[in-house]
Design brief:
This protein has helices at 22-33, 46-58, 73-85, 110-138, 159-179, 197-203, 206-219, 228-239; strands at 11-16, 38-42, 63-67, 88-95, 141-146, 184-191, 250-253. By secondary structure, it is α/β, with parallel strands linked by helices. A seven-stranded parallel beta sheet has the order 3-2-1-4-5-6-7, with helices on both faces. The structure holds nicotinamide-adenine-dinucleotide.
Length: 259
């Protein structure tokens, strides 16, 4: 058997990228609760990924930590080879890994542009392409890309992030058109402000904290930030049979911010 061949008996699993903490961790928990073995991808914080897996197992689920920087094509290929060798195939892919490197574009270091595009957009491309090989041959699969309302309505200082997330939305729609005939659904979730470490990084500066408080009080009709579980449940819905006729769609989870 060639190294890439997949045994017919391989079990289906979910892969959630950047799942050691925040929204990704909540998504991994949600999918594991739906009886899918879950691979918890992480870039560097092994302890956090181990902890996320331990929490899933304590709740009766099945989870395995898996290291890879999703912006690195070869690392993603190695991650998928590892999943195959363990006897699984990725039937549900959630491209959640993402970062921000805020700053005005006129002064933005090229590296801050590249890094944000790399984790948010290139990572989604690398993982989707790797997962599609098996999804297409099995005529089954679903991909959910975690975008952002920032990809629809840009904030000052986030041109790199806005470009990356707008790219994720376009990737979602384009790919949905290409693979629908194989029974593969591709959707996106666009969260608004969700209470995670990413938000905590923004709160760390006086300017960021003031901006967030203004958004919470004046721009979000529900007048609060979202919880990771609220995004995770939306992903769970998109991955379920209740969403069997939904593809190429962007579901906004923002407390009414974009209303
Ligand atoms: P977070 O910073 O808490 O978690 C992101 C995780 O992704 C981290 O564990 C990080 O290590 C991982 N990651 C980043 N780059 C990676 C890479 N190249 N390879 C592997 N892992 C990588 O952030 P979060 O708030 O949980 O965000 C999750 C997703 O939701 C991101 O795509 C983010 O852009 C999106 N989002 C978040 C918010 C929000 O308000 N928190 C709003 C809209 C969209």
């Amino acid at each position: 058997m060639s190294q890439n061949a997949l045994p017919l008996a391989a079990r289906k699993a979910a892969l959630v990228t950047g799942a050691g903490r925040g929204i990704g961790r909540a998504i991994a928990q949600e999918l594991a609760g739906r009886k899918l073995p879950v691979f918890v991808n992480y870039r560097s914080d092994e302890a956090a990924a181990e902890d996320a897996c331990a929490a899933i197992r304590a709740a009766g689920g099945e989870a395995y930590p898996l290291r890879a920087d999703v912006s690195d094509r070869e690392a993603v290929a190695a991650m998928f080879a590892d999943i195959r060798q363990r006897g699984f195939w990725v039937q549900t892919l959630v491209n959640n890994a993402g970062i921000v490197r805020d700053g005005l574009l006129a002064m933005m270091p090229a590296d801050d542009w590249r890094t944000v595009l790399g984790s948010n957009l290139d990572g989604s491309f690398h993982c989707a392409r790797a997962a599609l090989q098996t999804m297409m041959s099995r005529k089954s699969g679903q991909i959910v890309n975690i975008a952002s309302v920032g990809g629809m309505r840009a904030q000052v200082g986030q041109a790199n992030y806005a470009a990356a997330k707008a790219g994720v939305l376009a990737l979602t729609r384009g790919l949905a058109r290409e693979v629908g005939r194989y029974g593969i659904r591709v959707n996106a979730v666009a969260p608004g402000f969700i209470d995670t470490d990413m938000l905590a990084e923004m709160k760390a500066s006086d300017k960021g904290a003031a901006l967030l408080e203004d958004a919470r009080a004046k721009q979000i009709p529900l007048a609060r930030f979202g919880r990771p579980e609220e995004v995770a449940q939306t992903v769970g819905f998109l991955c379920s049979s209740a969403a069997s006729y939904i593809t190429g769609h962007v579901l906004v989870v923002d407390g009414g911010l974009c209303a």
